[in-house]
């Protein structure tokens, strides 16, 4: 992904647009001017003042953004550009979505690849595997969702021995997260989804129409589909980063708002995230890794015998 992310995390910030530049003002003495061409995506915490022209120009340049609510309550708001002119590719994507056999086969692949990734994460943490799920080829979509949920619960329960007791981790929870590890997981999944959304938009696919996850207003369902096999690898980074760089007092807790990283430490989190993006695997950036998933998806929908391939049609 060309460019760098912009994180706006100051309640009194004012963001405006001027001649191909974002102007971010946080005080009378602090103003930054960022060329919009160098921005990969934008993350906003809370309620800074963002002029409407900013959103228009971000969309015009194909730069996605996410607004993360204060105190961890509610869903992030996903903002993206209009779809590109790759109409035949999207028609093939829509054809796959409309064909139950095509959706079912891809859902099976996602669940199995995610399961293998979960096993790999447990291996690296010296934790016994979760139960084998093969064969699953005859499981319907609804039952597959239930099976994935069971696997996820078993997986997160299996992670407990790898989490130091002072983090109070008792399995996956969210909306709002109840402990530091879950707060980190939720934020990291949001960031991963944003990276994937940008890559998807660049190819011309529709990020809002998933194959496995059902469409929902304001949710990039295809991006959520494609990050599923990546999430267990991200979980390993979350656990390691939490143990190495943070302490329980870096998080605020309340019954109403759940657990969240305090503002003073979010800067450290985003620095660690930038390092991860630069080297997600030994020889790939996170963008390159996400691009591989998108390319594999495009190959799947074009070659799937159940869906119509519009690649060679004239529009």
Q: Can you describe what's shown?
A:
With 315 residues, this protein is an alpha/beta fold. The protein folds into 2 domains: 4-63, CRISPR-associated endonuclease Cas1, N-terminal domain (Ribosomal Protein L15, Chain: K, domain 2); 87-303, CRISPR-associated endonuclease Cas1, C-terminal domain (Four Helix Bundle (Hemerythrin (Met), subunit A), Up-down Bundle), CATH 1.20.120.920. 46% of the residues lie in helices and 15% in strands. Helix 3 packs parallel to helix 4 and helix 5 crosses helix 7. The strands form 3 sheets. It has a 4-stranded mixed sheet, sandwiched between helices. A 4-stranded mixed sheet has the order 4-3-2-6. It has a two-stranded antiparallel sheet with strand order 9-10. It starts with a strand and ends in a 12-residue tail after the last helix.
Short synopsis of the structure:
By secondary structure, the chain is α/β, with parallel strands linked by helices. It folds into two domains: 4-63, Ribosomal Protein L15, Chain: K, domain 2; 87-303, Up-down Bundle (Four Helix Bundle (Hemerythrin (Met), subunit A)). It has helices spanning 52-60, 87-98, 100-124, 141-159, 180-203, 221-227, 231-245, 263-278, 286-303; strands spanning 4-8, 14-17, 21-27, 30-35, 39-45, 49-50, 65-68, 77-79, 251-254, 258-261.
Mean pLDDT: 87
As a percent range, the share of strand residues is 5-15%
Question: How many H/I helical runs?
Answer: 9
Point out poorly predicted stretches.
none
Overall outline: globular
Name the strands of the widest sheet in spatial order. Answer: 1-5-7-8
Rg, Å, rounded: 20 Å
Q: How many domain regions?
A: 2
Distance N to C terminus: 29 Å
CATH topology of the largest domain: Four Helix Bundle (Hemerythrin (Met), subunit A)
């Amino acid at each position: 992904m060309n460019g760098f992310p912009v994180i706006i995390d100051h309640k009194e910030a004012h963001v405006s647009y001027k001649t191909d530049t974002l102007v971010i003002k946080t005080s009378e003495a602090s103003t930054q001017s960022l060329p919009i061409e160098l921005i990969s995506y934008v993350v906003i915490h809370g309620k800074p003042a963002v002029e409407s022209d900013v959103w228009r120009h971000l969309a015009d340049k194909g730069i996605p953004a996410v607004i993360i609510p204060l105190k961890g309550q509610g869903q992030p708001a996903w903002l993206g550009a209009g779809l590109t002119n790759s109409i035949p590719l999207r028609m093939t994507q829509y054809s796959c979505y409309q064909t139950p056999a095509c959706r079912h086969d891809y859902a099976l692949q996602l669940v199995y690849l995610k399961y293998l990734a979960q096993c790999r994460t447990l291996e690296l943490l010296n934790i016994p595997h979760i139960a084998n799920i093969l064969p699953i080829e005859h499981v319907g979509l609804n039952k597959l969702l239930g099976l994935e949920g069971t696997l996820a619960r078993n997986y997160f329960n299996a992670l407990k021995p790898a989490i130091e007791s002072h983090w109070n981790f008792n399995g996956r929870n969210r909306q709002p997260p109840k402990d530091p590890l879950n707060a980190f997981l939720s934020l990291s999944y949001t960031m991963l989804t944003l990276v994937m959304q940008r890559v998807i938009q660049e190819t011309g696919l529709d990020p809002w129409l998933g194959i496995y996850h059902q469409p929902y207003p304001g949710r990039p369902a295809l991006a959520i589909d494609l990050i599923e096999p990546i999430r267990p690898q991200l979980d390993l980074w979350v656990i390691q980063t939490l143990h190495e760089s943070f302490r329980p007092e870096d998080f605020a807790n309340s019954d109403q708002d759940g657990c969240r990283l305090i503002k003073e430490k979010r800067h450290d989190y985003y620095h660690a995230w930038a390092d991860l993006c630069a080297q997600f695997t030994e020889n790939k950036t996170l963008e390159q890794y996400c691009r591989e998933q998108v390319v594999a998806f495009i190959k799947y929908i074009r070659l799937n015998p159940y869906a119509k391939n519009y690649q060679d049609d004239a529009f």
